[in-house]
Amino acid sequence: MPKLPEGAERPSPDEQLGRWLAGDPICPNTSDECCPDFSCCNPKLLSEPLVRKAFMQGSQGEREAWLGVFLGAAIQVWKTDKKVHMAGRDPTKTS
Ligand SMILES: [Zn+2]
After folding, report:
1. What pLDDT is attached to residue 80?
2. What residues are neighbours of ligand 1 (ion), with CB under 5 Å?
3. Average pLDDT over all residues of the chain
4. pLDDT given at position 9
């Protein structure tokens, strides 16, 4: 896993995005963040090069839309991979 070892120098958010664009996702960055598509934590989530490029060139609004897509994909993968219990309201309960 491309997790940085303890004490390793963290990339700045810009540097992290540059490496992510190049297909080398690592985290955390100096702001304790993951890559936009969380591929740093799960290589299965690495998006297509064209998608990464579109994200990098996108406006703030476009980036937010992509983040929603990435988050949805991440939730699907985490649910099937690790059987993560999603916190929140149980939709089968009415109260
Ligand atoms: Zn990560």
Report:
1. 80
2. 27, 34, 40-41
3. 87
4. 86
